[in-house]
Structure formats: C-alpha cells, structure tokens
Records
---
Amino acid sequence: MIEAMGMQAENMQRDALGNSMAYDEDAFMRLLEKYGIHHNAVVTMLGDAEARRA
C-alpha cells in the first residue's frame, strides 16, 4: 500500500506541475506481482490455509 501510495503521490505532483506521469498502469500492476497479491496468488494462499486447517 505504501509503495503504491508513493507512486500515486508522485504522479499527482507531476500532474500538478504539468509533467508526464512517472508511473503508468503497468507499473501499478507489477506491484501486485512483486508482492504476490494478484488474484491467483491470493486464491492459492487461501486454498493452502484451508488445506492446513483440514
């Protein structure tokens, strides 16, 4: 969250100054992969947790 918020703040500052964005949608999507919080990773994690409880 903190990294994404920093990226968003940088984009907002650059926008206010009339500059191009530092981070595009792909950069934000790469965060999901970087931290393993994309859909498939979460589903796998939840499935593994359920299997351990059984």
---
Amino acid sequence: MINNGIIKTGLSAAMHFLVDGLCLCCLFLLDSFAGDNDFLTVFLYYNVLAFLTQPFSGLLADALPHPHWQLLASVVLLLLGVVVATFSLTTAASTISSFSYHLTGILLGLGNSLFHTWGGKQTAVTTDNDIRALGVFVSTGAFGIAVSLLFHSWSLLYTMLIAIGLLALTYLYIDKGEVKTLNKKTRPPFPSIIVCVCLIALMLAVMLRSYVGERFSCAIPSEHAYIVLLIGFLAMAGKMAGGWIARWFGVVRSLFVLVALVAALLLLKGNSQTMMLCGLFAVNCTMPITLYLANVVMPRREGLAFGLLAAALMPGYLMAVL
C-alpha cells in the first residue's frame, strides 16, 4: 500500500504544476488585450507578490490552527483571479479593463504565495522533511510555466482551474483524519544566533543560485518551442533529482560536488548549448538541499523557512535579467 505521505506529495506537486501554470497562462492571455506597459507592470508586481510575500504567508502557514485553511484561501484567490480576468474581456470600457487586469495580477500573486508556503510546509511535515519529497514538490512549477508559455489558451486556463479544485478536494479528503497529528515531532531548537547565521547563508546561496540559473536559461537560444519545454523540463528534473542525489550520497557531499560542477560548467559554457543545459540541470539540483537545511535549522517553522528562501530568489533573478 502506498504511504499517505507519497500520495500527498504527488497531489501537492501536481497542484504546484497547475498553480504556476494557471497564473502565467492567465497573464499571457490578458497580454494580448493590454498594452506593453500594462503587461510589464502587472507581471512585475505579480512576481513581487508571488515571491516577496512568501515570508508572511509562511508565517501564516505556521500559525494557522487548521493547516488547510490556507490552501482553500489560495484556491479562492486563484478562482477570483480567473473570474476577474474573464470579466475584463467582456467590458468595453478601457479603464475598467485595465483595472481588472491589474486586479487579476494581485489576486493571482497572493494566491500563488499562499499555495507555495502551504505546500512547502505540508510536504515537510507529512514526510518528516524527506529531501526527496521536497525536491518533487518544488520541481513541477517550472514545467507548468513552460507549458503555459507555449500553449496558453482559455480552455487550458479553465481546465487548470478545475483540476486545482479537484486535487485540493482530494487532498483534503485524504488528510481529514490526520490534520491534528501534523507537527507533533519536534527537534531541539538551535540557538538563535546559529539560526540567523544559517538562514542568512542559505538565503545568499539561494540568491546566487537564482542568478546563476537565470544566466544559464537566458544564454540558451529558445526560438523553438521544444527548447522552451526542454528548459522547463530540465529545471524540473534537476530539482527532482537533487533530492535523490542528496539522499544517496549525503547532503554535504552532494552539495559540494554540485557546486563544483556548476562552477565548472559556468566557466566552460561558452557558446555550447549542451553545457548550458547541463548547467541549468545541475544548479537546480541544489534546490531541495537548501530547503531541507532551512527546515533543519527551523523546526516547526517550515512555512517561514520556505517563504524566506522563496523571497531570496527574486533579487538573484532581477540581477540576472536587468
């Protein structure tokens, strides 16, 4: 019989694919009805809300008496975002359409933030911080973005929304008898100064990884659809594989080897597309490792740990693209 933790990880990973895909699908669909300035503005603060608010939604995930209220709130916000986006296309008044477009970005960004920290915390506590499960959960969003970038349509958007609702209900049904048992396992807390130093080091590492990963991605010519899908797939596969690599060979040894490999590929990449694709895969292998370590130094604060590392992604991304 399949362990419930495996089923829940699979469900949350599938929802991660759909949530990230839905948000990008919706924004790209509205792009054709809005000016370039509107799209860039909405896309910017969607990402700010989706990433930089995660420390706060992570605190919420740690504090809520019922862990799945946050999932329900996320689904409601995503639903409202899709409804507002649909409404914005039915009105003839450009000011109302513009307002609806901006409101859509806000709703999707907040819904995305709530989902990620809920999923990150639940994956950690239901699997006792299993690094393989963490890698599976964080991996799928990248491929969802790639799929939506290429195939965004209203039918895909509504299909993703319905699938998110069904998977969320399935998760709630499976977990209904176990909600009260989460987070009972505790570990002795580390001294505050050690926690702060470790978190700062991990956040700097995540920021650097985001910068390097974006440099690899931007350097890969993506004029063909299969390359976009390949980039998304390799990012997903790297995050997924990183958890298994660390489980097999040890966290410290795996991290050391992966960092050395990424550095070598960064120096040697030149104009070689193969090197850049290998670098993209390797740098993503480190993601479950940093998340695992953050959970180790912050026991029972898995939501905040996830949120802080997610927020650290944004500065690295901006440094790479600006």
---
Amino acid sequence: MNRTRNQLQQLLFILLGVFIPTSIAISNFLIGGLVLCWILEGDFLKKITQTKQSKWILSIFGLIGLYVLGLCWGDNHLNAEWQFQRLALLLVFPIFITTELKQKTIKRAVIAFLGTAVISALVALAINSNVISPLGEYFSFIGIKDNSAFLKYNYHNVILALAFSLCLYILIEKKSKYQYLLLFFLLIYALSIFTEPGRAGQVIFNLSVVFYILYYNRKHFLRLCALLVLLFSFQFIVYKSTEVYKNRFDALSNVIQNNGEGGEGKIDDIRYIFVKESLDRIIKNPILGYGTGSFGTIFNHEVKSGHVFDTHTTPHNQYLYVWFELGIFGLLLLLSIFFHQIRELFKKKDGIHRILLPLSFMFLMLVDAYFFIFILTSCYIFLFTIYTKYQQA
C-alpha cells in the first residue's frame, strides 16, 4: 500500500510538469492528489521536524497568521475570503518540501515541464502568426481571451521565462547530453516570449541572460561587451520586426517619460495610480495597515480613476499589497520568506544558479501580486521544490 502511494506521488509530481503550463484545473486536481497522499502517508512528527528546519516555512506560517489577525483591525474586510483562498495554496509549500521525491522523479518532472512549455510555445507561435487559424478560433470558442496557447498571455509568458532560465542553466552547466535540443527549446521560448504582449516574461528573459553573461564573463571584458551588444541587437531586431513587442515597449517608454501621468485629457496609467494611491495611504498607517481584505474596498470607494481596473483587489504590486493590508510587519514576513529561501538555495552546490528562481519571482512581484495568483504560485512551488531537492552528483 505504501509503495503504491509513493509511486502515485512520484507520478502526480511529474504530471504537474505537464499541466502547469497547460491547465489550471488539472494542476489544481494534481496538487489536491499530492496533498491527499501526504496526509495518508502520516509520519507527521518527522514532517514537523523537517518543517522547523526551514525558516522560510515558518515565515509563511507567520504571514498567514498575521492575515488572520488582520481581521481584528480596520473596517473593510470584504475581500478577506478571496485572500484566504489564495493563502491556502501557500500551505502546499511545506507539503511539497516534506514529500519524498526520487531524483529520477525530479529529472522527469524537469523534462515534462520543459517539453510541455516548448509545445505550448509552439502553439502560441502558430496562433500569433496565424499559421493555424483554427487554433485561435478554438481557444476563443472555449472562452480564453488574449490567449497564448493554453493559458492567458500574462501567465503563459512568465512560465516560459522561468522555463527559459531553467533550460539555460541545464545547457550552460552541461547537465544534459541533448545540447542541440536544449538550444532549440531556448530559441522557441524566446520567440514566443517576444511575440506576446506579456512584459514580465520579457524582463525575466533579459535578467536571466544578463545574469549569465555577467557571471561567466566577468573576467573577460571584451567578450562580456560583445555578448551584451549581441543581446541589445537581438532586442533591436525584435523591436523592429514584431509589432506586439514594439507597441508594448513604446507604451512603457511613454509611461516612464511621463511618470505615469496621462496629460491633459488623458487618464493616468493605472499602475501609476495604484502605486501613488497605495503609498499615500500606507504613509498614513505604515505599522498595522488597513486590515485583511481591505485594499479592494478602499480603492473602489475612494479612488475614481476611470479605468476598468478600478475593480481590482490588488495594486498590481505584491509588496505594496501586503504592506497596505498588514503594515510593515506583513511586508517583513513576506521578504523573510524569500530571504531565507535564497540563503537555503545558495548553500547548495550550484547555488548561484538556483537563487535565480526566487530572485526572478521577487522581481515579478513588483508588477503584480503573483504570490497570490494560483497557476504562477503553483509553478513557483513546483520549481522551487525541484531546485531544492535536486542533488548535484
């Protein structure tokens, strides 16, 4: 019975690599299966001991506990139920970390994730280039708008960028004999990332490439400069040849040049409004914040920007969101999670490569509340488990 359950756990984890890039519903089902196996496995004293050894897990419990206490202050908690639904996913972190996964399972999960991501990227390229027009009609039929293959572009784009970083690490460190296949994967990821409107994935792509250029060429100045010029040239070619990328780049440049202000007769950029209005209120109550589930209600009642995004329950920034609702203590707990994760990964062999995952996710949280978005948090938990449990030979 125990052997069968363990085999099921290994299979479910591998299947996550297939469905995280393709299906939110099935990913949810697979995570539920892994949680159930973990509960049936028992041996909770051992698991509690393992949990105590990771300070970042304790920080997660602390953050969830503070959200519970956050119900005790403030007058607006209408979005608290929505918040706790997202927080529940964070409890999967200690479950995955204390699940025994074989090295063979870890490697197969990586293959499944990278392989499925490249298939998803190829489908997205076909849709965006109108090569296979029935695909676009199919996805519109099932109700997915602004899609990039199986997920919305802003989720798909980020997952491809994380897959790109992992694939680049495997290729550079020669951890696979299929070098040419990995090069093909990297090319497809890059093409898909830069032919979609999602900017977060594009920035993660650039950060990963710059990181590796600097890391491996820090003692070779001329080669470092040549590679940076090559990267800039790639960006320039993409900018000139891809309308989607050009439009998004120009729009972002305009926002930066005008400090987010729309000018006479124009509406200010919504992210600028989110940051400005959030900081104005945080300054007034920086210690405790306004309570769990308060941001959406306060913003909707007090700010009339004219944007369709006025109904959002987060300010498109994870740090501001937590600080707004839980005060400085909530922000410190959030930062503590990633600080201790980075420390833990850095101590491992090839730690410099492993920490790129949490660093990338920390950047992503500057542009949205990604720590509370199901599929991207699931992807981060899945990849973090791989980066933590993979044992370098």
